[in-house]
Amino acid sequence: MGAADNAAAPPRGDVPERGRGGGEPEAKEREVKVVVVDEPPGAPVARLQAQRPLAPLQVTTQAPPPPMSVASGGVEPPPQVATFQPVMQTPPQVAFASLNSRVYTNGITLCVFLVHLAAATFAVGFFVFRAVKDIVQHPRSRNAQRERSLLREWLPPVEGAVALSIVLAFTWQKAVRAWPRAMVGVILWSSFGITLAVGAMLMCFSMPATVGLGVAMVMFSIGTGLYACWVTCRVGFTARVFERAVQPVDKFRGLNGPAYLMVAAGFVWISVWCVAVIGAANYQFPGLTILGLVLSLMWTAEVMRNVANLTASRVIALYYLRGMQSSVQFSFQRALSYNLGSACLGSLFVPTIEALRIVARGLNLLEGEDEFMFSCAHCCLHVMNAIFEFGNSWAFVHIAAYGRGFVQASRSTWEQFERLQGMPALVDSDITSSVCFLTGVTSGALCVALAGSWTFATHKHYTATVSLLAFFVGYLMTRIGMALPQACVGCYYVCFAENPTSRLFDPTIPERLHKMQEGADPLVPTPRFPQQHPGAA
């Protein structure tokens, strides 16, 4: 290396001479390049350190080979699998595509309802025209005088009850959304107190018809009070479910709009319907005609309620299952078009099933040691179980979300409940539907208090019929308004059964299921699950 150092000295001293021109600088420049190779080890290492970062840059921009990925850290692949695992658990693309199904469900029922609606519209228009015609063209006839008397004495209290029912429908819905925990107990016990007070008021009118209605309301209030005592242990859990279920409503602007629109449409239809009843009272077979109008109004109002239910169910269900911000207007259009047939069929099925359920529970409490009552209770229970598989109120969630028919949706929802241990008993002991039903009863009783006292003070002989119609109208309008909270609770149960690991659900249901498995749950037994928890108090 000493010779190399001596050889390197002249060129280093001659480096400033390169700027003078001539051909020598080129040779010296080449000589410098040769000498660089013989530099001490420190200089090449520095050069290699400057060049080495280029190789990793080129490698990292390309796909790394398997040995490098393992050597760089074998712990990285597991977190990537865990990160994408929830995506792998999502339903297949077939289920996702069915969210926008354009098939009209339950087409036969839809056709029957549309024919019925056309016939009812024609009948209501005919009887209204007939009443007006008699009053205008034959003002001194007997029919015209009677119709004029009904319009002047019978119609105003009924319309007042209709207006009050709208206020009550909006008030109940707002109160349940604002104070869900408190309103469950308030509804149970206010239904008992208000129906008892109104029944006593009707009995004080001292007319045979009003006394009969008063006795019926007092008996119903006693049954309501016993029921409220029986389900006291369930109130806390139902209140927590209400509180959690209505929380997503604030995320969707205008979600309560369809319910309000259905209430407004119901007000218009009932107002015209009342005038038609006046015309039908002076037509042939008035009893059968008015009965037909009443049944038509019941089915139509129930369809209105289920349209609002389907709209809210689709928006809330897609939020729970897909995390989607669904359009309320689009969901409302689907409920009025593709899913209207299922709403019509469910409007016929669900009230019948709920009535059977109440009868079964009542017989189950009264059966005792009597063999006949025992046989009746179990016969009714078996019939209810057979029907429940083909039609239940939980079906509206799958109808709205997946566009299924009513029977298919009923089966799919109940199969989901059965796949989760303890879930069938939990949903069977749910009292949400009873709470919503009692809101309608309470509103009906308040409408009776208004219309009955009004009519008794002006025209006593109409008190019974006005009171009965006021109760009927108040109940129907409030049930339409309460469709939103009931839909939220239905989505909470059904969507949890479909995806229990979703982060959108709190531990309310899992904790209750855990208590049920330990035998310390107070929600059961029920007639359909009489021995689920032998250790329960």
Q: How are the SSEs ordered, and which strands pair?
A:
Elements lengths: L1 H13 L9 H14 L4 H10 L2 H8 L4 H7 L4 H12 L4 H5 L9 H31 L4 H37 L1 H25 L3 H23 L1 H14 L11 H24 L5 H37 L5 H9 L3 H27 L4 H18 L6 H8 L3 H14 L3 H6 L3 H27 L4 H19 L1 H16 L9 H11 L19
Helix pairs in contact: 8-9, 8-13, 8-16, 9-10, 9-13, 9-21, 9-22, 10-11, 10-12, 10-21, 12-23, 13-14, 13-22, 14-15, 14-16, 14-18, 14-22, 14-23, 16-17, 18-19, 21-22
Subcellular location: Cell membrane; Membrane
Main location: membrane
Function: Choline transporter.
Describe this structure in words.
- The protein has 537 residues and is mainly α.
- It has a domain at 152-518.
- It is built from 24 helices and no strands.
- It has helices at 2-14, 24-37, 42-51, 54-61, 66-72, 77-88, 93-97, 107-137, 142-178, 180-204, 208-230, 232-245, 257-280, 286-322, 328-336, 340-366, 371-388, 395-402, 406-419, 423-428, 432-458, 463-481, 483-498, 508-518.
- α18 crosses α19.
Tell how many strands the DSSP assignment holds.
0
User: What is the first-to-last residue Cα distance?
Assistant: 100 Å
Strand content: under 5%
**Rg measurement, Å:** 38 Å
Query: What is the number of helices?
Result: 24
Shape: globular
Range of helix content? over 70%
Average residue pLDDT: 78
* Main β sheet profile: none
Q: Which regions contain 5 or more consecutive residues with pLDDT less than 50?
A: 1-97, 532-537
**What structural class is derived from the secondary structure elements?**
mainly alpha
Order of helices and strands: HHHHHHHHHHHHHHHHHHHHHHHH
Subcellular location: Cell membrane; Membrane
Family: Belongs to the CTL (choline transporter-like) family.
Function: Choline transporter.
InterPro entries: Choline_transptr-like
